């Protein structure tokens, strides 16, 4: 009986040791994206004024604390977001669009416009995202940017690695949506 209890405690410890937790949301240390395994690079909390908006994690093929290296890295990537409050799809889309515009010139935004519209339309079709909703944005080198909401893939993958990098710049760019969230995603504060 004692050995069984010790084994259960060891298993529990291993399970706890393999997850990163932010504001009560657990993110696994590893994720499988396409044919590749990714590691959690960092995780953090998006706040607006004093509200907790979402917890998120960034997954990469190998860890990096350098935002430019992350943006240039080859291979699959994942942004995992869990909402901590109810949002309309419109609110989420506007935040994504603002974050992109803050980190790109008008000319760059023109080149991204059609694909940003595709992503926005998919998000708007959802209508509302309740607290606890899980949004995953994957980069699959063979097919593009894949949006998954609560385990359901939303539309076709969006082509172009430049588009995925543009999304990453919302959190990792020169004008990130939140400085301490950028640091956390780069593993500097998680």
TrEMBL record:
The keyword Transferase does not apply. Residues 1-19 form the signal peptide. Residues 19-187 form the Chalcone isomerase domain. Keywords: Isomerase, Signal. Transmembrane segments: none annotated. GO terms for molecular function: intramolecular lyase activity. InterPro entries: Chalcone_isomerase, Chalcone_isomerase_3-sand, Chalcone_isomerase_sf. The keyword Glycoprotein does not apply. PANTHER family: FATTY-ACID-BINDING PROTEIN 3, CHLOROPLASTIC (PTHR47698). This is Chalcone-flavanone isomerase.
């Amino acid at each position: 009986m004692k050995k069984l209890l010790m084994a259960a405690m060891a298993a529990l410890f291993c399970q706890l040791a393999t997850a990163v937790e932010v504001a009560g949301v657990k993110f696994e240390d590893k994720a499988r994206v396409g044919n590749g395994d990714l590691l959690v690079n960092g995780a953090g909390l998006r706040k607006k004024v004093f509200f907790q908006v979402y917890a998120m994690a960034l997954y990469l093929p190998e860890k990096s604390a350098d935002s430019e290296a992350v943006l240039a890295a080859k291979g699959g990537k994942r942004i995992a977001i869990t909402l901590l409050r109810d949002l309309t799809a419109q609110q989420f889309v506007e935040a994504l669009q603002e974050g992109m515009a803050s980190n790109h010139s008008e000319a760059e935004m023109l080149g991204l416009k059609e694909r940003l519209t595709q992503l926005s339309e998919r998000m708007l079709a959802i209508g509302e995202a309740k607290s606890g909703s899980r949004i995953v944005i994957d980069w699959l080198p063979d097919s593009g940017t894949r949006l998954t909401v609560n385990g359901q893939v939303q539309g076709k993958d969006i082509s172009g690695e430049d588009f995925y990098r543009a999304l990453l710049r919302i959190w990792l760019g020169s004008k990130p949506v939140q400085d301490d969230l950028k640091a956390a995603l780069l593993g500097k504060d998680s």
